[in-house]
Amino acid sequence: MAVRTRIVAGAVAALAAGAFAALVPGPASAASLVECESETGYWDCYLPSGLSSQRWYYDGVLLPGANDHSSAGGTCTPGTSHSVRVTFSGGRSSTNFTCQ
Q1: Claim: this prediction has a pTM higher than 0.90
Q2: Type and span of the H or E element at 6
Q3: What is the DSSP string of 7-21?
Q4: pLDDT tens-digit map of 53-69
Q5: Buried b (16+ CB within 10 A) or exposed e, 57-66
Q6: Where does the UniProt annotation place the signal sequence (predicted)?
């Protein structure tokens, strides 16, 4: 009987710990440094002033013409969703946008 009581008590403690962990927020995700805009089938993404990219990726595809620039852009089909990722000295950042 004592073994069963310890098992039940252990299970209750584990459930309580899990519930507590669910209530405590994890580390906040960093805001994206990449800002994107879209209008009439064209998109433009840029880094804040002072940062220069090393590589831009649009939907996972490298955009070699945009390398070492603070912005990248192109055409898109309105209503489609896209992801943009950029690497720069000191890190990388990404965001998603819907073409307008």
Answers
A1: no
A2: helix 2-23
A3: HHHHHHHHHHHHHHH
A4: 899 999 999 999 999 99
A5: bbeeeebeeb
A6: 1-30
